[in-house]
Queue: 2 jobs
Job 1
Amino acid sequence: MAVKVICFNQEGCMGCEEQIPINQEVETSLGIEIEEIDAVHNPEYIKTFGLRVTPTIVILEDDEVKERFEGVVHREELESAIKKYL
């Protein structure tokens, strides 16, 4: 079971700027990598994942979306969600 976490963001997004250090804390705490993708520069993801807002974080297990968060997600909530799939 391969788990992948992606954070979709865009330049100038205040929520995205707030999410970045949270993601870094979670990466360090859980020993994982959260992939950062600029949704504006990669529009194919907008349709693929039905993106409506940034930041949007998706947790994938074997390329299937298991969890999705729109807007800023606090560290405890994000860690708890990811731990279910590790």
Job 2
Amino acid sequence: MIALEIKGTKNIMNALLLTGQFDSFLVEDAVITTFNTFHIDGHLVADFYSGEELEELENNQKSTVFSYWSDIRPVCFQLIKGKKTPVSFKVVLHAAPQLMEKIAANPECGVAANLIRSLILNIRYDNGKVTCVTGSAFTTFIMDKSVEKLWDAYVRQLLSGFGLDFEEI
């Protein structure tokens, strides 16, 4: 687990809300506080979908648990846009299953993909600062830290690739 403070709040908010750079991530939760606090639960509601639609999601290797950021991003943007900055903003993103499999396939990884429950990226805006914190969860207790190290390295590389400056805190 690492905590990174992003330098340039505007840059990360643009990357998060105005571009598709984070669109392949899944959303567990988003909380936006402006004139009210808006809570978005990213869990998909299976009853909303027909059996065929759920089957199509599964066949296309799409999540049947969480929504993709690409589907939630426009809603969050509508809540945040305006002349005033939000009081706070928090989004909990998960790596898509394909990314978890890719990390598990890395020769430096000593953990099977089926043991990785989630790889998490928490992005929080509060008091004029944006902080990103990584996390991981497994289906069982694991002593091996290779997945966490690879995930942390991936997030650093991702943020750098987006042109975002950060420092570890």
